[in-house]
Amino acid sequence: xxxxxxFAIGIEIGGLSxxxxxxxxxxxxxxxxxxxxxxxxxxxxxxxxDVTIVAPETFADQAGTELAVQLAGGxxxxxxxxxxxxxxxxxxxxxxxxxxxxxxxxxVIRIVHSLMLAERGGFLLHSASAIRNxxxxxxxxxxxxxKTTITRLAPADAIRLSDEVSYIRRIGERYVAFGTPFSGxxxxxxxxxxAPVEALYFLVQGGDNRVNPLPVATALRKLxxxxxxxxxxxxxxxVFQSACDFLAAVPAYELTFRPEAAVWKLVA
Amino acid sequence: xxxxxxxxxxxxxxxxxxxxxxxxxxxxSTLFSLNEAARLLWEAADGRRPLREIVNEVIVPQxxxxxxxxxxxxxxxxxxxxxxxxxxxxxxPLEQAxx
Lengths: 268, 99
Fold this sequence. Notes:
The complex is a heterodimer of chains A (268) and B (99). Chain A is an alpha+beta fold. Helices cover 24% and strands 38% of the residues of chain A. Chain A has helices at 25-34, 102-118, 147-152, 216-226, 234-249, 263-267, and strands at residues 7-13, 16-22, 39-40, 47-53, 68-72, 75-80, 83-88, 93-98, 123-132, 135-140, 159-162, 165-171, 174-178, 194-205, 210-213, 227-228, 252-257. In chain A, a hairpin with a 2-residue loop joins strand 12 and strand 13. In chain A, helix 4 (216-226) crosses helix 5. Chain B has one domain (5-90): Outer Surface Protein A, domain 3, CATH 3.90.930. Chain B is built from 3 helices and 6 strands; from the N terminus they run E-E-E-E-H-E-H-H-E. Chain B has helices at 36-44, 51-59, 67-83, and strands spanning 5-8, 12-17, 20-25, 30-34, 46-50, 87-90.
């Protein structure tokens, strides 16, 4: 319990923990259930978000407003039709105003993590990911590319990290993929596990299964299209350099596949 | 004869990948892929050397083209890059050129 805001809920993703403070019991319950596999000690958090819960009608006049992320005076201002948030990277603290729903806070957490990762040479990637034989494999592509399909086809011994958003951190000279609670069509969180990234595959659904190495410049364009980053300017330049560094360390391929389990023999 | 001076915009990030130079315009996250001639001009764009000197020393020896044609082509190219905001183009040397 936080003395000022009632509930303190620690959520650790990718080794970075955020404590959410809220006085709203219903919202605290929503968050505790949604991030059940990613809870951490709130007293040991790396960052803090104070969440103020308001009536849904508060946002009625801005419903449908698209996400906007702006840096002003050293503070990130994050606004969408269903929430408003501020994030100060220096103090690693922020505030969120939203209604009692899991989707707004999920978006804020993704954005805050993407900003923290950008400072550390990492990024969130629109990709499925899984661990097999102690190595992580990434399967990237926009909606409809087959991320959920390839996840469903994974062998029983594969550890699913995500079917939607993969969490990539640079640790030393290696890149490590972490499980996330962010889910796609499977509507189920990934496992809270991690492993060094062995390969990145860009998915193409086709009539057979084959793997083709990608020229690094081509891979960079595809990678940048799939990195979840919401800001422009200098932080975007950092993400660009991180993507280049990542591709210098991790091979990238185009994976053409048809929906059959045999495709996994090609990749892991 | 007047000349032009070119300098890489500070609002960019760039990386050579294989045979390509990829440049990011950070203002709008647009990516540019520079061909060989553009890459040579980009790399030489320090704001201090006149464009004609760069062309004569870098472009002409690399491509089988006369100096005047090379200069005209280079000028057109740098005007395009300047139009995209990834290169600065001026009639005078550009101070505080990046290292």
